Amino acid sequence: MNILITGITGFVGSHLADYIVKLQSHDRIYGLARWRSPLNNISHLIIENKITLLWGDLLDLPSIERALQICQPKIIFHLAAQSYVPYSHEAPISTLQTNVIGSANLFAAAEEVAGVIVAVSSSEVYGQPEYTPIDEKHPLNPISPYGVSKAAMDMLAYSEFIAHDLPVIRTRAFSHTGARRGDVFVASAFAKQIAEIEVGQRDILYTGNLDSIRTWCDVGDMVRAYWVAARLCILGEVYNIGGDRTTTIGEMLNILISLSDAKIIHRIDDSLLRPADVTLQIPDTSKFQKQTGWEPRIPLEETLENLLEYHRERI
């Protein structure tokens, strides 16, 4: 069958493409990409002719309609988004346009295409939690433009399911990381700075708030979850997906530091503190695990070691 991944050039999209290829299935993978999107995350798949890129933009409805008509996907993994929370405070309109209007275009075009859509939302829709662990019945209280945009996309997907029978499954992903994660995201930013210290490119590692609590998942476990969600989850339903290892940001940093022989000095940089910060994210993933049998397999130490090696190789 034909599979379309929006955001295939990004962190999670490229790992999802890798995962499907490694299944040695006969599925044909298409990826939606803008002409200016960097292709380094998927260059190996392009060289090996494992994927087919379709040029388009979520904000350009005709290009989305054309892409769907070409590939006729049986599964759409909708991963494309402006996903950096601090940037959403600087550019809220752009974030809302990409994540809400872009998703609306995709859903409208997909009404004419049979299949399943896995609409990937975020734990940021819950905001600062009223209780933990956070289950799917927790109120949506986003406190950033990014969180607002993902909540709107989430609800838009649900309304399309109710009003137009759009075959959509909604997922809300909690913190996940691994190789290829953007340098601005916390674990990756730390790993990059450690690798730079190891080769003498910097002296000090700068951090934001180290007291925030996160539950971590490896990107490999996350993309495996999306794959089983498309096959085993109930249309119209929403599912939390996340790991089972909870730490403060500072504890995660200490694990990364322990993987290096270099002397690491770190300081807080006030510019890295968010104007509104979600400081506690502990998921209840029992609904998803009961429905699919999925559970996280990769320990946090292995995830962080892979992330650090990724930055060492880049440097």
Topology:
Elements (H helix, E strand, L loop, with lengths): L1 E5 L4 H12 L5 E6 L9 H5 L3 E5 L5 H11 L3 E4 L6 H6 L1 H19 L5 E7 L22 H20 L3 E6 L2 E2 L8 H13 L5 E4 L5 E6 H14 L5 E4 L3 E4 H10 L6 E4 L11 E2 L4 H7 L7 H15 L1
Parallel strand pairs: 1-2, 1-4, 2-3, 4-5, 5-6, 6-10, 7-9, 8-12, 9-13
Antiparallel strand pairs: 9-11
Helix pairs in contact: 1-8, 3-5, 5-6, 7-9, 7-11
Can you describe this structure?
- This protein is an alpha/beta fold.
- It has two domains: 2-176 and 218-241, NAD(P)-binding Rossmann-like Domain (Rossmann fold); 182-214 and 245-278 and 297-314, UDP-galactose 4-epimerase, domain 1 (Alpha-Beta Complex), CATH 3.90.25.10.
- It has eleven helices and 13 strands.
- It has helices at 11-22, 43-47, 61-71, 85-90, 92-110, 145-164, 186-198, 219-232, 249-258, 286-292, 300-314, and strands at residues 2-6, 28-33, 51-55, 75-78, 116-122, 168-173, 176-177, 204-207, 213-218, 238-241, 245-248, 265-268, 280-281.
- A seven-stranded parallel sheet has the order 3-2-1-4-5-6-10, sandwiched between helices. Strands 7, 9, 11 and 13 form a four-stranded mixed sheet that branches.
- Helix 1 links the parallel strand 1 and strand 2 (28-33).
- The radius of gyration is 19 Å and the shape is globular.
- It starts with a strand and ends with a helix.
- The mean pLDDT is 96.
Which labels suit this protein?
single chain, 315 residues, alpha/beta, Rossmann fold, UDP-galactose 4-epimerase, domain 1, 7-stranded parallel sheet, 4-stranded mixed sheet
